[in-house]
Design goal:
The chain is mostly helical. The chain is built from seven helices and three strands; from the N terminus they run αβααβααβαα.
């Protein structure tokens, strides 16, 4: 700005701050319980899908895309390629439990295919150790690697 101030979210030179934009678009103004009609569990059993569950749209889901609610439409459209429940929630800026509930509804209707990972593998300590090692291999904002426990 000409008076020395910068726009909200802009860097000192008036440009955008460095790094990629986290998510494009406005945050949803609808409360999560309205999207799920007050449900807090995706299935009558009360069991929830793990965040790493992979979902992909079916041909039937893509065929009825224009007849789905806004959130369901966005989930099916995003699942043209396999994605995890966590990725969908982050990309669409929806609460994780809302995505779980809607994904279960879409699976029941035959519009999504759900692939739940093998729980024996996800509880293997060697997998967690490799994950921790991989995270430590990512440099921090100063380019310094963290190499201690």
């Amino acid at each position: 700005m000409s008076d020395g101030r910068t726009e909200s979210g802009a860097g000192e030179d008036g440009g955008r701050p460095p790094g990629p934009d986290p998510v494009v678009g406005p945050v949803a103004a609808v409360r999560p319980f309205l999207v799920t009609a007050g449900r807090v569990a995706p299935a009558p059993s009360g069991r929830t899908m793990p965040v790493e569950t992979q979902v992909v749209a079916t041909a039937e889901g893509l065929a009825v895309l224009d007849r789905l609610s806004f959130e369901q439409h966005d989930i099916v459209a995003a699942c043209r390629i396999p994605q995890s429940i966590a990725e969908i929630a982050a990309r669409l800026r929806l609460h994780l439990n809302v995505v779980r509930i809607l994904a279960e509804d879409l699976r029941t209707a035959g519009q999504l295919t759900v692939h739940v990972p093998d729980t024996d593998i996800t509880h293997d300590a060697s997998v967690l150790r490799r994950l921790i090692d991989g995270l430590r291999a990512i440099p921090d904002s100063r380019g310094v690697l963290r190499d201690t426990d």
